[in-house]
Amino acid sequence: MRSLLSFLNSKSIIACVCTISLWLLCATSVAYAGKVQEEQLKAVFLYNLTHFVHWPKEALDEKRGGFDIGVLADPSFVDALTVILKSEDKKGLPIRVSTLDDSGLLLGKYAVIYIDQNSLADWEELKSLIDGLPVLTVSDSSDFTARGGMVSLVRDKNNIRIEVNYSLVTEAGLQMSSKLLKLAKIVGGI
Description:
single chain, alpha/beta, Rossmann fold, 190 residues, globular, 44% helix
């Protein structure tokens, strides 16, 4: 009888461990799927922003060979953005996504720079390198516009809200569509 109880208890423990393991696996998968979905949503927002911003003619010169987006973010965001933009173009130039690098910054390669909230430690140095260039700066950090960035994609419950530091946009020689500005929260004056 005692061995039967030991056997049942060991079976119960094994079943309990298996159940907990399965639950953790499912919870991790759901969390990962949620992160991937959020990264895809931000990537779509970033792509759509490019339709509502106008760069000076020389910034979109055909000699550049493409419309470059530099990204300093989690690889899942880079992957999501690359998939979304695979066959897209901006004024006939292919849109290219790459991880941000110093040589690209120094050559004025990028039309858009996206920096996620986990990479903001590099923002001050990055900002000084692109100051005065027609480069749209975007982040998912809620205080990015207060820190000298142009556009924040701010998570608000289940939505993403757009915040624009309009004075920085115009100082860089960029123009934003009134349609975008109507949807955005404007900081830095109009």
